[in-house]
Design a protein that fits this description.
The chain is built from 16 helices and 6 strands. The chain is mainly α. The strands form 2 sheets. The chain has a 4-stranded antiparallel β-sheet with strand order 3-6-5-4, covered by helices on one side. The chain has a two-stranded antiparallel sheet with strand order 1-2.
């Protein structure tokens, strides 16, 4: 975009705002204005315009020039008359239903908002010529390329960001205009706004004949849309923003497991497991909670192996042969470990209702599938297939017309596949991210079935019993504090 760089920005901004106000003065109905309660207002539109202009922006050129010179002088602040102008314009805006007039109001409000953000004395000098290649872009994007940035400080969506590069050609301005046509600037982080690129943004808005609509806007010198979006995304990620709304998790309580706690039993050796449980409860997002649950099961996988070897060697020296056996046990594939954990724990009582792990998980599955329609069942199968490295889907009956589900046997593989989809991000693999949690059926499957089943095992196994068997060999309890080596 080219423009006469010899014109001072202050003059161009002044003329633009004056022309907008003159347009509004000619397009607001005169006479008495009725508000929503159908009562006549005390002021006419022309009276309010007169007040809004403060007798300095309508006809009196000399006063208008003086007001703007004061606005842009060194060390000046945004003067009271412009704050009053904004207030009165908002009053007028509320009384019109004409979309074109409303957009004109919004444009003035946007200009006033950005004028407050710049170093005002910059507007007294001509714009640097190296900004001439920048333009104002209304971004048309797909969901995948959405310019949405969340602030890590408070999880709010960012509305406004200014990057002023050491090399000015690398600068950009990001703005998110709300449905009401406004730009809300968060106070969580001020982004070095007093820069030439922001002043040039104001001029680009002044020069734009079309309205500034709701949506995402960029000021940049990158003409290719994909390159422009990618460049801005990269900057925002380096600044600590994230791109996808995080799916929040809920903290599940386990009153049925609580009923099997026994004050006569010793849980002291589970102090490490309590820390893992605490991590599960502390997680605020769904995928983080899933991974913390998996970390608990991961701990149990190996601990059960060590407990079994120590128990079988009770009273004897722990020699090279036992260490080798332990090493061979640990070297198994992780999925095999997980399957064995579920298999060896299946008959453990984990509920005050005297239910074992298998029955508790099957009961949870029965409850989950009751509300599933055919489309949901198909989408869950597609999701499981995506996470599978071999593309195979376990033979799970999601229909609510039979008790034959095979869910318990299939659950370890499903959990392991989801875990791999979260932590692996190879080009050839399906990657499960927060963006995927916007899909309600994927979210429902993980939040309402997978995590609760994992928590039954994670929270229930330390307190579990073998029913009426007094010779219970607990899979997580060491039989001795140390092992004899000689």
């Amino acid at each position: 975009m080219t423009h006469n760089n010899q014109i001072k920005p202050v003059d161009e901004i002044r003329e633009t705002i004056k022309s907008f106000l003159q347009y509004l003065d000619g397009n607001i109905p005169l006479g008495k204005i009725k508000d929503d309660s159908d009562k006549e207002s005390a002021d006419t539109s022309s009276d309010l315009i007169e007040n809004a202009l403060h007798n300095c922006l309508k006809d009196d050129e000399e006063t208008a020039a003086k007001a703007f010179e004061g606005l842009f002088s060194d060390g000046s602040t945004f003067p009271d008359e412009f704050n009053t102008l904004e207030i009165n314009l908002k009053t007028l805006q509320s009384r019109t239903r004409d979309d074109n007039v409303l957009m004109s109001y919004n444009k003035i409000f946007l200009l006033l908002k950005l004028i407050k953000e710049i170093k005002l004395s910059l507007a007294l000098d001509p714009i640097p010529t190296n900004l001439g290649e920048f333009d104002l872009y209304e971004e048309d994007h797909s969901d995948r390329d959405d310019l949405t940035f969340y602030n890590s400080a408070d999880d709010s969506e960012e509305n406004y960001y200014v990057y002023d590069g050491d090399d000015k050609k690398n600068s950009f301005v990001f703005m998110r205009i709300s449905s009401s046509g406004r730009l809300e600037i968060n106070d969580t982080e001020r982004t070095a706004p007093r820069t030439p690129i922001l002043l040039y943004t104001i001029l680009l808005i002044c020069r734009r004949s079309e309205p500034i609509r709701q949506g995402k806007w960029l000021v940049s010198n990158i003409t290719d849309p994909k390159n422009r979006l990618s460049y801005v995304k990269y900057h925002m990620l380096l600044k600590g923003y994230y791109l996808n709304k995080l799916a929040p998790s809920i903290t599940n309580k386990h009153p049925n497991i609580e009923k099997i706690l026994d004050s006569s039993k010793d849980y002291a050796q589970f102090h490490e497991l309590f820390e893992i449980m605490s991590e599960i409860n502390s997680r605020k997002t769904l995928l983080d909670k899933f991974m913390s649950c998996y970390h608990a099961l991961e701990n149990y996988m190996l601990r059960t192996k060590i407990v079994a070897i120590i128990s079988n060697n009770d009273g004897h020296l722990f020699g090279v042969r036992q260490f080798k056996h332990l090493g061979l046990q640990v070297e198994e594939k992780e999925l095999d470990h997980l399957k064995k954990l579920f298999r060896t724990s299946s008959d453990r009582i984990v509920s005050g209702e005297n239910q074992n792990l298998r029955d508790s998980i099957e009961k949870k599955f029965q409850s989950f599938r009751c509300g599933l329609g055919d489309p949901d069942q198909k989408n869950i199968r597609k999701f499981i297939e995506k996470t599978s490295s071999d593309g195979k889907v376990p033979n799970i009956n999601f229909r609510n017309d039979t008790n034959d589900t095979d869910f318990y046997e299939s659950l370890p593989k499903i959990i392991y596949q989801i875990r791999c989809s979260i932590v692996h991000n190879k080009a050839t693999e399906y990657h499960l991210s927060s963006r995927e949690m916007a899909d309600p059926i994927k979210k429902k499957f993980i939040e309402e079935l997978c995590i609760p089943c994992m928590e039954i095992l994670a929270f229930g196994l330390p307190a579990s019993t073998q029913g009426q068997d007094n010779r219970d060999k607990h899979p997580l309890k060491y039989t001795r504090e140390s092992i004899p080596l000689y």
